[in-house]
Each structure stands twice: as C-alpha cells, then as structure tokens.
Amino acid sequence: MNQDEIEGGVRYVKGKIEKNVGDVASSASWQADGIVNQVAGGAQNLYGRAKDHVEDLIDDAPGMLQEAGDRARHVASRGRDVANEQMKQNPWALAAVVGVVGYAISWLIHGKRI
User: Fold this and answer.
1) Alpha helices in the chain (DSSP H)
2) Predicted model pTM
3) Which pLDDT belongs to residue 66?
C-alpha cells in the first residue's frame, strides 16, 4: 500500500462524513464538499492501486521474460527434434518442400517475364 492509496482512502472517508453531516444539517455546501472529497479520494486511491500494480509488473518483468525465453527455447528445441525426425522418416517430402520454397524465392526475385 502506498501513500496515494492511504491519502485517497482518508479523503474518501472524510468526504463521506462531510456528506452525512451536510445531510443532517441540510447544508448544501457540506454535501457538495463531501461528494467532491469522496470522488477525489476514490480517484486518488484508485491511482495509488494502479501505481502499485504497475510497480509489481515492473518488478516481475525480468522473471517473466526469463520464463518466456526458457519456454521459447524449449519449444524451438522440440520443433527442431520433430523436424529432424520427419526428415529422417520421409526425405522426399523435405526435398519437395525445399523445391517449392526455392521456386517461390526465385519467382519473387525474378517475377513474371513475358
């Protein structure tokens, strides 16, 4: 909990009390001040909570990035292993894929000729 959350909560409660006193005393000025303080206190409290969440995300970011990198390396390694196994089992399919990719690259480089 940070200073904005605390101050916002205090201001909200203060506004609630002001509003109730204004209701009892039939004072429009106290009621308006109370409502303003409730809204401002709620906004400041919400800002403090958001700031806390952002700070937590920043603190957690290096660990999250490390975990994402580890997972990506694992997936890439598994994909490489699957591709190698498929190449061993069916080398003609690999040759066909390489041929199609080579044709596509040459077509992109040279384009259509009339």
Assistant:
1) 3-25, 28-89, 91-110
2) 0.56
3) 94
